[in-house]
Amino acid sequence: xxxxxxxxxxxxxxxxxxxxxxxxxxxxxxxxxxxxxxxxxxxxxxxxxxxxxxxxxxxxxxxxxxxxxxxxxxxxxxxxxxxxxxxxxxxxxxxxxxxxxxxxxxxxxxxxxxxxxxxxxxxxxxxxxxxxxxxxxxxxxxxxxxxxxxxxxxxxxxxxxxxxxxxxxxxxxxxxxxxxxxxxxxxxxxxxxxxxxxxxxxxxxxxxxxxxxxxxxxxxxxxxxxxxxxxxxxxxxxxxx
Amino acid sequence: xxxxxxxxxxxxxxxxxxxxxxxxxxxxxxxxxxxxxxxxxxxxxxxxxxxxxxxxxxxxxxxxxxxxxxxxxxxxxxxxxxxxxxxxxxxxxxxxxxxxxxxxxxxxxxxxxxxxxxxxxxxxxxxxxxxxxxxxxxxxxxxxxxxxxxxxxxxxxxxxxxxxxxxxxxxxxxxxxxxxxxxxxxxxxxxxxxxxxxxxxxxxxxxxxxxxxxxxxxxxxxxxxxxxxxxxxxxxxxxxx
Lengths: 241, 241
What we know:
Two copies of one chain form a homodimer. By secondary structure, the first copy, chain A, is α/β, with parallel strands linked by helices. Chain A contains six helices and twelve strands.
């Protein structure tokens, strides 16, 4: 059987014999860029019904259609981990969203803090990055990117029972490790360049559900810290176990 | 005492009372970009003598001078860890070098493999990225970026006693964890997009010093994989312990 060269996220429901109309952009990508033709296989997922092997049944420049043949993977939900981060420069914010999807965050939450430089994000663009990362990494789930929320409000509305792993620049070189005892829902919080303000730090440390964790003896950039923190969490409590 | 706003890597030896002539680029950065003046403090390191607090003694547009006042950190060598990786697209290669320096690699080795796209690297540019990352992350050591080497040759000349952590896309979803028993010199090897060839994989797996490690159930991009693998290693065997 021919190997699928493309993995595509779609909105529609997936099931045996189901037809999937393609958008103009999808048709352009499959038939214009990737030069695919009728009969070629495509892997498709929608974040709900697992991954399906489909075949191209209509291949035009501006539209097209796939038909679902067989499920190739069941839906695999990531663990209930949020990645909360303070947006930084555009390219690095894009990277953090991409990395969060690859590393298996269930939700991505941009947070505005006292030292956050950017006061706006383009939620739709960041969501598109998360989709692309899910297509690339073989996951069957796409994390939702939230709208920018102020740290105060995020903490005021914090869901009961969710633990918080708080990676603080001020802990550089300390030996604070993630204690691997508490399962259930979690969030990781990564600060902006320049770290958290003293007031924020005091508030965060006083939270009963907060766990302060050190990321080694060097100061990591926010995108590096996000991957490192998710690695520690996934290995201790998540789906790398 | 005024807080130093700049952390600078220099080539010269550092010691109490030592004067440090600045290059044209350094003078431009300190006095043109950062608007510093005579008397202002600068943190300086050279990879050998730790970190020193210096004061500006000459501040011109095209040249300048610092004087070392006091040591602020001793030299802290990273663990003896090499990060070996197959260069990918330019921006991501730059990121891998930056991340390797932040995460505390002692040496960075670009490796050409069967599926490597780029056959050339700019060693001087990558080395400059490593210097910048060291300035930023507060380390007192700058990892050396080697010239591009073919995987065959790297393995043929492999130093006795150095262990190899081999992160293979084919192990996605397996439960192979880093066994935290073997200290001493190590290297991490990250493959290119598309992974290793069958021949390379067979050769790597047969090496007595190779340890195959899984990085979770999703396929990670090379730059994500580099940070994740270094996190696992630093936490188990390195200076995050």
